Structures are given as C-alpha cells and as structure tokens.
Fold:
Amino acid sequence: MKKSISFENNNSLFITGNHKLLSTNGWIRVSELSRQNQVYSIEIDKNGLKKIKYLYIKKIIYKGIDMVYDQTIPFFHNYMKNNIFLHNSIEQDADVVIMIYRDDYYSKQNEQKKTTEFIVAKHRNGPIGTARLSFFPETSSFQNID
Structure:
C-alpha cells in the first residue's frame, strides 16, 4: 500500500504504509499517521547550520498497491529523504526472511565442512526453523546432507 504524504513546507514523500517516520511521539508507521502528527525535519539555513523543525502533515493520499523495493541502510536503518527522518528495514515488509549461515566460512576449525544452515526467521504464512544442507562451492549447489 503506497501513500503520498505532503507536509506544511510543501515537501512530499511516496512511501509504503509499513515504513516509519520520526514524529514528536517517536517512530510511527505511515499507516497510523494523521494530520495531527508532527514529524521531525532538518532545515539548513543560509549559513549551513542545521536545526530540527517539526512539520505538520498537510495531506495523506492513498496511491494504491504498487511494487516497492526496500533499501537497507546499515546499523540503525534510518535515513533521510526530503529532510524527513525515515526508518527502514527490509524485514518489516517481508513475508519471509531466510538467513544463510556457513560456519566453515568463519571458522576454519569447523568439523562440519560444507554444511549450510538455512534459518527461516520470519514466515507470515508458515513455520519457522532451520534446515541444514550440504554446500558444494565448485558448482554453487546445495543437496540434502544424507
């Protein structure tokens, strides 16, 4: 669900409803915003000095369902767009999150060479858990351990 948000300074954002903006009440999802919310903005004056300003939301328009691609910013997963503080992580919009881990990549003393763990950390419509497979780097393929 994509929305267009216009602010009192006439800046605007196109953003999905799961993303969060930094408001005077903390991080708040776009889907929960109203015109009563104020969000933090950074304003830069003519001397290059930065100051935090609070902006009211002027208008929120539902733009329908659209393909979106997340961007992950390392460490805190925060960034700025049009001087508005945004929070983003690929996990918040994902239906399934799978992490891949190979201990022998990090530890050369590992006894289980070529074993790869597929860790399903989030699954909105199914189970979570770990599957172990054998990895063959020469062909970039995986097979059952048996």
Remarks:
- Helices lie at 90-93, 103-106.
